[in-house]
Amino acid sequence: MIKDKRFYKNVIAITIPIAVQNLISLATSLMDTVMLGRADNTGVFLSGSSLANQPFFILSIISFGLSGAATVLTSQYWGKRDVKSIRTIFSIVLKIAFIFSAIIASAVLIVPETIMGLYSNNAEIIAAGTDYLRIIGWAYVLFGLSGTMICMIRSVELVKISVVVNLSSFVINVFLNWVLIFGNLGAPALGIRGAAFATLTARTLEFIITFVYIFFIDKRLCFKPKHLFLFDKIFAKDLLMHGSPVFINEFIWSLGTTLQSAILGHINYASGDPVAANSIASMTQQLSTVIIFGVANAAAVIIGKSVGEGSFKRAFEEAKALKFMSYVVGAAACVSILLLKNVIVTFYTVPEETKILAGNLMTAVAFITFFVSISSITIVGILRGGGDTRFCLIAEMITLWLVALPLALTGMLLKLPVVAVLLLMKIDEPLKGIICVIRINKNKWIKSLTRET
């Protein structure tokens, strides 16, 4: 372990704001599911919104992938304090984010029924999800831009603004949910459409705060509206070569995750609703992993900065310390799920069979989360920060698409218990965690990606 206290201070300084941001964001989603569950005890609203949010999940992963692709380069340029190059890279990535978010927004607004039909064969759930998509689709472009930018500025250690953005979004979203879902303060009770209007308003507020801060307040990057027109063929080539594996990785992973949701959505032999139960279990897991992903993002910035400065030996030492942290925070997350699972289930107004199924899924998820910590901190943090993006892509592709998904599909066709299907579905986490730890121990992952300017 590194004895330099500054290293741990840097990890904490980046981890905590990101963890708080993630916690607030998840608390927003949690309140959505709790309120929708109470508004409809059949579980249709909860399942409908859960499946209708899968396209948004893909968009959020694309935003994370694009910002991750940028971070591979910008964290190393930040080590060199080359702000001019960082602005150009940011500009290129924001253009790409706009294109992708506009395409997905068009799809969910034009053919929402078709999209819902991909995830469920239940007519009531499809109808509810379609109503949700027709409203929330208007927020996609706004989130695509603001979400990408918020993630990108982490690479230059700007993290506190994300807390402000997400806290503001949480307050307005929860308040409008209470008003519009249930019809309080004289408003009509809109049910699932009320949740969609509340989220649309919150995403709009996020966009306004983010862009006002980036363009008119921040003095570190001094990013101005005119910089949106910056472009450089060399940086575009570097992004394609070194950043595209990160983007492809996240995009393919998101497609795999939505396919997992589709597999659960087509299980009709279980006692209880697998989609609603998995929604509860997934929310619990996400709440327990806010520190994990905070450390992972901090690792990417810290490792990338050291590599950009040319301090390879220090990067090796930091990687070993961060690898050990992945074991510690993973174990803590596992224990927290086991301790809180019964309490969390009581917040949901769903049939008793679904509550029992959710509790069983959370037990499985608790142990999976330990390996999520290892794989996330090594892939998203250490290896990407060190520039080893192609290896990360290969590890993710093989373990998810060639192992986990075929096994999960087989489990569904064989009508195995839902818990068994979930464990098969998540078998990629321990596999890629082991592979990445071996990679880091071999010390072949550091690659300097910056150019002299």
Helical/strand content category: mainly alpha
Helix content: over 70%
Query: Average pLDDT, to the nearest integer?
Result: 89
Low-confidence stretches: none
Rg on CA atoms, Å: 21 Å
Shape: globular
What is the makeup of the main sheet? Answer: none
Query: Order of helices and strands, N to C?
Result: HHHHHHHHHHHHHHHHH
Number of helices: 17
What does the model show?
With 453 residues, this protein is mostly helical. It has 17 helices and no strands. The chain has helices at residues 5-39, 44-52, 54-79, 83-110, 112-117, 123-136, 140-152, 160-182, 192-217, 233-265, 274-288, 290-309, 312-345, 352-385, 389-413, 418-425, 428-441. It starts with a helix and ends in a 12-residue tail after the last helix. The model has no long low-confidence stretch (mean pLDDT 89).
Using brief descriptors, characterize the structure shown:
453 residues, single chain, mainly alpha, globular, 17 helices
Write the layout of secondary structure elements.
Blueprint: H1 5-39, H2 44-52, H3 54-79, H4 83-110, H5 112-117, H6 123-136, H7 140-152, H8 160-182, H9 192-217, H10 233-265, H11 274-288, H12 290-309, H13 312-345, H14 352-385, H15 389-413, H16 418-425, H17 428-441
Helix pairs in contact: 1-2, 1-8, 1-11, 1-12, 2-6, 3-4, 3-7, 3-10, 3-12, 4-7, 6-9, 7-9, 8-9, 10-15, 11-13, 11-14, 12-13, 12-14, 13-14, 14-16, 14-17, 15-16, 15-17
Brief rundown of the structure:
The chain has 453 residues and is mostly helical.
